[in-house]
Amino acid sequence: MTTLHFSGFPRVGAKRELKFAQERYWRKELEEQDLLDLAKALRTRNWQHQAQADADFVSVGDFSFYDHILDLQVATGAIPARFGFDSQNLELDQFFQLARGNQCQFALEMTKWFDTNYHYLVPEFHADTEFKANPRHYLNQLQEAQALGYRAKPTLVGPLTFLWLGKEKSEGFNRLDLLPKLLPVYSQLLSALADAGAEWIQIDEPALTQDLPSAWLEAYQSCYAALSAVNAKLLFATYFGSVAEHAPWLKTLPVEGLHIDLVRAPEQLDAFSDYEKVLSVGVINGRNIWRANLNDLLDKLEPLQAARGDKLWLSTSCSLLHSPYDLSVEARLQEENPDLYSWLAFALQKSEELKVLKRALQQGRTSVRAELEASRVAAESRAASKQIHRHEVGQRLAALPANADQRKSPFAQRIKAQQEWLKLPLLPTTTIGSFPQTLEIRQARAAFRKGDLSLEQYERLMEKEIEFVVRQQEALDLDVLVHGEAERNDMVEYFGELLEGFAFTKFGWVQSYGSRCVKPPIIFGDVSRPQAMTVRWSAYAQSLTKRVMKGMLTGPVTILQWSFVRDDIRRETVCKQIALALNDEVRDLEKAGIKVIQIDEPAIREGLPLKRADWASYLQWAGEAFRLSYYGCEDSTQIHTHMCYSEFNDILAAIAALDADVITIETSRSDMELLTAFSAFKYPNDIGPGVYDIHSPRVPEQSEIEHLLRKALQVIPAERLWVNPDCGLKTRAWPETKAALENMLAVTKKLRAELSN
């Protein structure tokens, strides 16, 4: 009998119930017990869906109030000592303070979970870090599921990936040296789950899909030899890439089963054809929304099942955390584009796809004849659709002149032309783009979408908000202003709605971090720009002030990475199509007198392949796409870009090759750590390191901002240094925004006075 199991399910609920409850709790509008009750109801619903899909095991431990790596820090006692909290008796408020910071401590650093748009909270490791087991998080969920009659499989990230994802916060040690202290704690966690009745425990080690140093690879055997003493069967899980090169020693690992990702790396199956234990194959894509071709999958799975029998397990490639919840609620999409709707599958539909595969393998294809026929029809419909390909888009790409992605002059020449008209002071100040999205703004957008506001009424409201934002910035005395992005629902969705080749859902939310959810567009066809997207708002904002107004665009790589992307052509081609559409916008902004233009690329590091051997190709086409978005600009037009919450140290040459005149980067949570690398690399253009963390509600003291700016001045020449927050201010409230910016400006003026003496 083929076993079906899950590695994880979306946490936030079908309609983001958890998000709204969390935020009400943070505003003290909801009692803790009410939040706990809602979370329990969401978990129960997830298990019901998994059971309805004929799952042999439901996944437990995957639910989190904020982040699963933060849960593991608590479970291992590895929370930062600087908070002064007791991991054995951590209160829910304290848990959220670790994630969001408080008035005394800045929050844990946040960065991307491998090459996804999910953000995890980075563990802080010191040479004297001590670990202590607290299995409560996993035990509670296991016992909840058992009480409901479900056969449950706890899932937690493995010890080597846990250490790999953390950072050394004291000098002179390697965090791998902590493994001997960590392993007994992991054994205690696993033993507690086994004692509570867990037959199988899934341990995720996705770090193995990256280029680990030899010492880390060598640690796997001894690590799992120690964990194998636990009285439960261990399923060693990898995903996001191939582990074929490690197959010889993985086959000898003392675990009872192995999970591999056959969506991202189908070729690796051959390397495990002779694996003698349970082989779990991730055949349904946990990260994209395209319906699987079930007939093609069965062609591959039937001989595998015949050879392996009950040692074959079926699952998604990875946790469904990265997938929207339910396609069936997308009535508008079904009505407007029934063909596209028939090509899609969200978490619940992916669960049903697994159910069909399991039944076909156990009872034959005739038992699911209707489902397989529907899958065939959808696949053929998509392949033959005339919605997808547009001849003129391909022609434009093919006709680009040689070196189209290169600026007319080098930076040293351009910056002189820019300074002649900008006339900015030393340490120029700006923000990253968005200002608080108030309830009134969101209500106005919602009313306009429903037809309760006319276009004229809506535009008047947006103009009023833009004027308010401009006046606030003038009062703060910022140097380069922004219009505040009141009209934008999301930095990617907004542009996708105005581009050809994109489609949208109403409830297709996925978690980005904490209570922050995004609704990625669906790129299903060739991309072009039918009309201007931002010019009207930026030009209006500029008309209100004599100060410099900055145009704001999302870059091609980020639009690609933060969308659900078509899989029938190369991602490189899609990205360059987006770049040329954005280039039309950049040229129109320039014509409208907006000559400082920020093209955000926070996702450029996220898109980096997990194996270094694939980096050069990706960085080449990603860089070319970014440069194509502004090709043909005048030297006097200043191009900015923004990047945040990723590690950039190892791709600085590629970032420099983007040739943006100014780069703004996140550095506050890492205490300006990243700037050291920029300095050592001798980054050639202007830099604006973020001087306070906008993802935390706390207002930074002037002393904190001054500390960070003085560190920046040690490595970046003052004439090339900009001052700005870490990221956009959309998620913050106005009182804290104004207070934080006032502190930022006060420190800047103090340092300007010092530098001018």
From TrEMBL:
GO terms for molecular function: 5-methyltetrahydropteroyltriglutamate-homocysteine S-methyltransferase activity; zinc ion binding. Residues 427-749 form the Cobalamin-independent methionine synthase MetE C-terminal/archaeal domain. Its EC number is 2.1.1.14. Zn(2+) 1 binds at residues 642, 644, 666, 727. GO terms for biological process: methionine biosynthetic process; methylation. Keywords: Amino-acid biosynthesis, Metal-binding, Methionine biosynthesis, Methyltransferase, Repeat, Transferase, Zinc. Coiled coil: none annotated. Residues 5-307 form the Cobalamin-independent methionine synthase MetE N-terminal domain. Zn(2+) binds at residues 642, 644, 666, 727. Binds 2 Zn(2+) ions per subunit. Catalyzes the transfer of a methyl group from 5-methyltetrahydrofolate to homocysteine resulting in methionine formation. This is 5-methyltetrahydropteroyltriglutamate--homocysteine methyltransferase.
